[in-house]
Amino acid sequence: MFDILLQSSGWTLFVGRFHPVLVHLPIGFLLIAALLEIGRRAGKIPVSVSVINFILFWSAVGASVACVAGYFLSLGGGYDAALLESHKWQGVGVAVFAWVAWMVSSGWFNKKMPRISVLYLPAFGLSTLLTLTAGHDGGSLTHGEGYLTQNMPGPLRNLAGIPPAEVLSTDIKPIGNIEQAVVYEDIVKPMMKQSCVQCHNESKKKGDLRLDEFAFMMKGGEGGPALVAGKSTESDLVKRCLLPENDDDHMPPKGKPQLTSEQITLLSWWIDQGAPVDKKVSDLKVSDQVKPALASLKSTAKGTGSGIGGRSESLIAKLAVSVPDQKSIEALRKAGLTVNKLSQDQNLLEVSAVNAPGFGDAQISLLLPLSEQITWLKLGGTKISDQSLKEIARLKNLNKLHLEHTAVTDAGIADLKSLSYLQYVNLFDTKISDSGLKNIAGMKSLRSVYVWQSGVTDSVVSQVAKQYPNLSIVHGLSASAMARFIKSDDTTAAGIVAK
């Protein structure tokens, strides 16, 4: 039985995951006991020794239980060995010195060893001090080395003797010349740094996996290789991103900066191209599906779900809506759709049919109970037609709509004119013609529309572009078109940032 407890198992990991909860008990008890002791000795607080002794007892019990849970948690691996060892013995020290302080305070040994009372304050002080240092190392284990001090102001850093902070930004910088961008270094690595490296780095290797460097990505972790070069559909790095956000295996975890659909498209494309480390965009085959995702790199993406930032503030950035109905969300998921929140401080939803190509007109009514919350809707490659657009027009806060590779026509697109928040529409490879583009171009909210490989002609694109200079119309990705797109004010991603 004892041997089982020394090995990682379902039971030990289950108990171990309560360590972050349990560890707060001794922290709180010890700090309040220390404050009461200081107040008592200073004559400021009329508290009895027995009260402090009672708190010390539960401090010692809490520290001991937290140590056991912490040990079980460590069996799961994925932590920096040296930092873990330091944290472990500091935690043990908290428990040991708390027990010593309690036993001396309770008078257990006072009769036989009168002088033992001199150990009370040193033991109490060491236990409290170790609580603080163990907490620092615990934060570093969980969030990465230096987590608790990385944002410490300069004057405090000087007092503590800590070197100046290294400026680390998770913002994804815009790429001026996309064709000359090195795919891994300029596209994939910034994505990993933004959404994955916090949990998979040198000091914190969750699942024994590091994603901060190419070699470690290829090596993989406990579950095997993170990616299979040439096969994105078999790569955990992609498969986990496509799971529902509330799935335990979804990565990044719920509440962390998520990869956008454009970023997942680019990651999948890079893997399918063999995951090269030194190839430029111009060296690889770029499909029509990847082109708009590459075009999105012209602007910054900051924080969770930001996608393609844009210089204009999104119309929905400060939109407040009610909490979505969970039964309605589950109905969409049963139909094969992916449903995620755009940010943690809003109830806005992104609904995607990336894994449900069979989704069609008969199921479109499933969206209506969430007509207030759905703001990004991705139905590219599905079976929907103009009939669905009549229902989609009832999603009053819709901001971003993907209709590429569908059977929609000019007649259906006309129904979207009532959407006052719609800023982006993707109509790539549809039956939209010149009249359809002219019909929606005058929408005050619209900022970006993709119409290449449709029935829209170059002459009408030029005409509409002159008439509506604030509207970015992408009608192909030639060098000149790409240059125009990069200079335009695209608001594709709605610019939502979780704070």
Please provide a written account of the structure:
This protein is mainly α and 499 residues long. The protein has 3 domains: 2-160, no CATH class; 178-298, no CATH class; 326-487, Alpha-Beta Horseshoe (Leucine-rich repeat, LRR (right-handed beta-alpha superhelix)), CATH 3.80.10. The protein has helices at 2-5, 10-16, 19-22, 24-41, 49-74, 81-106, 120-143, 154-160, 183-195, 214-219, 236-242, 261-272, 291-295, 326-334, 386-392, 410-413, 434-441, 458-467, 479-487; strands at 338-341, 349-352, 374-378, 400-402, 424-426, 448-450, 472-474. Helix 4 (24-41) packs antiparallel against helix 5 (49-74), helix 4 packs antiparallel against helix 7 and helix 9 packs across helix 12. The chain starts with a helix and ends in a 12-residue tail after the last helix. The model is unreliable at 299-313 and 477-499 (pLDDT under 50).
How would you sum up this structure in a few lines?
By secondary structure, the chain is mainly alpha-helical. It has helices at residues 2-5, 10-16, 19-22, 24-41, 49-74, 81-106, 120-143, 154-160, 183-195, 214-219, 236-242, 261-272, 291-295, 326-334, 386-392, 410-413, 434-441, 458-467, 479-487; strands at 338-341, 349-352, 374-378, 400-402, 424-426, 448-450, 472-474. The protein is 41% helix and 5% strand.
Q: Which features would summarize this protein structure in a list?
A:
499 residues, mainly alpha, Leucine-rich repeat, LRR (right-handed beta-alpha superhelix), 3 domains, 7-stranded mixed beta sheet, disordered C terminus
